[in-house]
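To whoever is on call:

I kicked off a structure prediction for a single chain this morning and the downstream step that reads the tokens threw a length-mismatch warning. I double-checked the sequence; it's 279 residues and nothing unusual in it as far as I can see. Pasting both halves so you can look.
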Amino acid sequence: MNELWNIIVAVILGLVEGLTEFAPVSSTGHMIIVDDLLLKSKEIFSEPVANTFKVVIQLGSILAVVILFKDRFLNILGLKKEINGVRKKGHRLSLVQIIIGLLPAGVLGVLFEDYIDEHLFTIHTVVYALIAGAVLMIVADFVQRRRKHTAIDTVDKITNTQAFLIGLFQCIALWPGFSRSGSTISGGVLLGLSHRTAADFTFIMAVPIMAGASFISLLKNWQYITMDALPFFIAGFISAFVFAVISIRFFLKLIDKIKLLPFAIYRIILAIILIVVFL
């Protein structure tokens, strides 16, 4: 019975990770509510094992992006000229622009990793980040509605300068609870991209930085993936992958229609729940 419950916990946590990692709602805030309050995986396994598990399920979410954007990634690497059956001619999103977008958060992440881990992973800081991120999203939607020119409708039109500036917005996501998607999509919209284009660039840019951070963390904690915990890890990984595929497809179909405001309202509600329950 305990083993069955462990698998159920893993599937639920994978579901939460998959549904929230790439939506602008903060997967960190949801993990705090679902795991720390309801499931308490750190009581099932030791804290290092539970933390390593969260890295593994994040890799499941990353794999979902790789699968869904496989044509785009192959195109960026020069291995394929067609994206979803359409041959790309002229300017296209390049690996250079991805690297430019990754540099700011990558550098700051390395410099301040220990400080972030020690001081920013608290309920208070996550609540503040949820609210601050909601404000940024509301501002981005307001600016987009007031803009007179047509928004950029494809990642192939993103300039090096825009890629770098979006990378600067991604730095805000080092603040746990702010949301990588929330910061970069908002930044992209403020810089003149459509919501869908900003989301596409966000997901593409997320893969290398998230995969790199996850693999480094796994190398440091490889010893915690034991035979006893392996079914827990596998169930969580598969669950995160499946629900991330569902979430990303649904999100990309809706984002240009509903914009960021509904997610901003949801974040504020989530922050209120955290305040009531934990503070």
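Update from on-call: the warning came from a stale cache, not from the record. Cleared it. Sanity check on the structure: The two ends are 34 Å apart (CA to CA).
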